[in-house]
Amino acid sequence: MKLPKSAQVSKPVRRMAAVGAAAVVGATVVFGGGFATAAGAEGVATSTGIVLGVGADEAQRVVSWYSSVGTAQVVQVVPTSKIRKGVFPANAVTFPATVAANTVNGGFNGHATIDGLKQNTRYSYRVGAEGAWSQTYEFQTQRFDGNFDFLFYGDPQIGASGNTAKDGEGWADTVSVSLAANPHAELLVSGGDQVETANTESQWDAFLAPDGLRSYPWAATIGNHDVGGKAYEQHFWTPNTDRSAAYYNGAAATRSGGDYWFTYKDVLFIDLNSNAYASGSDEAHIAYVTDVIKKHGAKAEHTVLVYHHAIYSPAAHANDGDNKQRRQDFPTAFSELGVDLVLQGHDHSYSRSYEIKNGQKANPDEQPGATKVQQGPGGVIYVTANSASGSKYYDLTAPDTTADPDYGPDPLNPDSHWANSVENQEHVRTYVRVRVRDGKLVVENLRSGTCAGPNAAVELGKVDWCGPDSGATAAKPVGSVVDKVVIHTYKADKGHHGKPGKNDKPEKNDQPKSSWLH
């Protein structure tokens, strides 16, 4: 079997010979990040930090990893149904990797784009070379059109509590809980700050330990703790990335990240490096978003922006200088460009904005905590995700007009900032589920933990209470809903590509239709 060709990447290279069973059986996995060696191979190579990333569209995935050698390496891919007794068939397809010297640990980092995937198919893959293959991992494609779910995770920031192991346990538990509850989720989207310190590989090892990161594509976002070194982009190769200087922060030797975009079904995702905001960077970001939407937005029913720094922060970062600046720079542009949803991190607390148009509340009558929103032209919803690992939480802050006169209290709920319909902090781990449903975006903040461990910030005494209502109410169970809103998006309501509007269809609470092959 051979995957279809694509002009977007190099042509796959067919293996020269069948893989012997010993190469598979002899592989030894040392930790969850994918460290593997091949028994009996000359100049044994090791592969670590294997992670599955998003591609440019539904038919692509990008695999990234670290290697001990800089020799030619590949990703080998085959439909799982073709593997017999753990042995890849002779006609398995290989995709050549780009391998470069690693500036972090002195080894090498590689990435390869898997292209031409078919829908509703389970695939197996491994990285390396003949005689030195990694462990075999699997991923599942689903339908290339229609409804789908994706999961959004805020700031794992492994190492932030001072205990990398405990942070890693909380992160692994959130990944496990969220995927067990949502096995048909098709993307995992990052809010940034994967780790506390950019070039500390023990933190990256703990972040990459969950095997879910090798089975579900991770859409990486760079946070402020991910800058200052090259580890972020060495661990994650992202599609359609513009690495121009305007999208970076810091000296050339340590620049990492950039702005990138991809499409998935009817959603256009645009990911920004919000660490770069001074000296014209915000203008450059807006120009990038404008160009991407101009070229690709007409094909999308929804546009979702992702970046790290939450401009409508409810907690410690509410009035940081960079956020105050971006509250002036971004909202009108995003409204004019027809953005539907903005996903953010950085503030280690949860918030969901009202419908915001041109930097103002679009509908003065929208009530706090409304569970349904009818989006008008230019209306944008901004969501800030809480900590997914429990490594660090920030408490909600009262609106402070002395710090920013334009970010005062909500007349309908004076304890909250005017922009936010919901602000929440319970010191429990959460993640956000977004369901794309027939002209609607259903956004839910779900608990992935309780006050019990793993919850490093609570266990280590970094916070002195836990639970709803500042600890006055007992913690709710794992999987319970903190917040939910159904957003009827404007573009879909008005029709897409000349098609009738879809918002008259009832909401479907079931999973997207797909063929999940077990």
UniProtKB/TrEMBL annotation:
Superkingdom of this protein's organism: Bacteria
Q: Where is the composition biased (Basic and acidic residues)?
A: 490-511
Q: Where is this region: Disordered?
A: 358-377, 489-518
Q: Tell me the SUPFAM superfamilies matching this sequence.
A: Metallo-dependent phosphatases, Purple acid phosphatase, N-terminal domain
Please state every residue range assigned to the domain named Calcineurin-like phosphoesterase.
151-350
Q: Name one GO molecular function term.
A: acid phosphatase activity
Q: What Pfam families does the database record attribute to this sequence?
A: Metallophos, Pur_ac_phosph_N
Q: Which residues form the Purple acid phosphatase N-terminal domain?
A: 50-141
Keywords of the record, alphabetical order, are: Signal
- State whether keyword Signal applies: yes
What is this protein called in UniProt?
Calcineurin-like phosphoesterase family protein
Q: Which organism is it from?
A: Actinocorallia herbida
